[in-house]
Amino acid sequence: GGTLDRPGLQRLLADIDAGRIDMVVVYKIDRLTRSLADFAKLVERLEEKDCSFVSVTQAFNTSSSMGRLTLNVLLSFAQFEREVTAERIRDKIAASKKKGLWMGGVPPLGYDPHPDPMRRELVVNTAEAEVVRQLFTLYAAHKCLNLVTQKAEGLGLRSKRHVFSTGREQGGNVLSRGQVHKILTNPVYLGMIRHKEKTFP
User: Fold this and answer.
1) Residue 69 and residue 105 in contact, taking contact as beta carbons nearer than 8 Å
2) Region of residue 59 (phi > 0: left; psi between -120 and 50: alpha; otherwise: beta)
3) For residue 36, which of 98, 6, 80 has the smallest C-alpha distance?
4) Which of 2, 23, 101, 129 can bridge 96 by disulfide, Cβ–Cβ 3.0-4.6 Å?
5) What is the DSSP letter of 200?
6) Burial level of 135, CB count in 10 A (0-12/13-18/19+)?
7) Measured between alpha carbons, how far is residue 173 from residues 18, 56, 76, 152, 195 in Å?
């Protein structure tokens, strides 16, 4: 696992602290944690309660110094693999954005994801696009963010309403000053996609 904050693991640790367990047996050590720092904390906690750790498929345990050394080496490689995988994912996202592809998340006001999930594109949401046009028109007329925000509220303009796959809803509220600023400075309305500090067509 990538974190120790997992309900099953927390119940196990509570039982260890209570002295109800004297040995923890796992299939592979990376099923428990892939973080060397987290594993060191776990081993220290187990040792305090005279509880040993055994990996079934890797034929060692923490009851010996050699077993602890082997575990640390394996966890170092597991953590390295995890970090390399994360770097590859970040690089892939950056490369896709350079190609102008939409890589997920809540789309900006005025756009929706393409109905075909295989197409990494945004399509215009006509009703929301009118809200965006009104905001830009207001700013062109007044050149004042606070005044634009006030006018937008008076016109009943609302933020994007988004329904997540879990059914949770977000947005559909009165636009805040920060939201108005974000819309007016979003390069997506110029046909660009932002990635960190850079923008791509």
Assistant:
1) no
2) left
3) 80
4) 101
5) E
6) buried
7) 49, 54, 47, 11, 27
CA distance linking residue 167 with residue 164, whole number of Å = 5
CA distance 57 to 129: 57
Quick count: other Cβ atoms within 10 Å of Cβ 25?
10
Instruction: Answer yes or no: are the C-beta atoms of 201 and 191 closer than 8 Å.
Output: yes
Cα 98 to Cα 22: distance, rounded to the nearest angstrom = 54
Residue 151 has pLDDT above 90, yes or no: yes
91: tokens are 């690089």
pLDDT in tens, 30-80: 777 777 667 777 877 888 888 888 888 876 666 677 777 777 777 777 778
CA distance 12 to 48: 15
Sign of CA dihedral 111, 112, 115, 116: positive
Nearest to 112 by CA among 162, 159, 179, 184: 162
Domains of the chain by range and CATH? 7-98 (3.40.50.1390), 102-200 (3.90.1750.20)
Residue type, 105: G
